[in-house]
Write a structure and sequence with these properties.
By secondary structure, the chain is of the alpha+beta class. The chain is built from 4 helices and 11 strands, in the order αβββββαββαββββα. It has a 7-stranded mixed β-sheet. A 4-stranded antiparallel β-sheet has the order 8-9-10-11. A hairpin with a 4-residue loop joins β3 and β4. The two termini are 28 Å apart.
Length: 153
Amino acid sequence: MTASALLTEARAALAGAPQERLGEERSSRWRGQRIVPVGAAWHLGVLLLTDTHVLATAEVLRAADPGRRGYTAESARARAARREQALRGGFAEGEVVHVGWSDIDVQAVDGGGSSGPLAVVDGVVSVRWSTAGGYMPLEAYLRERIELLASGR
């Protein structure tokens, strides 16, 4: 089965399931750095599936007010600033935001190639589910992720 066909089936199975919002970084002289809403997608592990596109996940954060905290690490300060940028950009407090995602070329995968975490391995459309992990068949991966999403886990 092709990647396109598997993803079309996944969209049908996900109808009515909750989606998470996509954000893009914006900067202006008046409003400063912020992350603004640009769409929504079903979060399926390393994949974000919209009605028309497949995206590779990148940064996932929750919009939040950083409050007044002391930070022991610069990385914690940076994460708090990113959460605040999402809040300032229009996301609700606590809302999950996906930023830095990239388009996956499904047609290239259907043609036997690869794009993002998707590739054809030994004739089977597969997904690399982690940078350290190997490939697994996309069909099984989608089935597992859809089941998790439907069960609320």
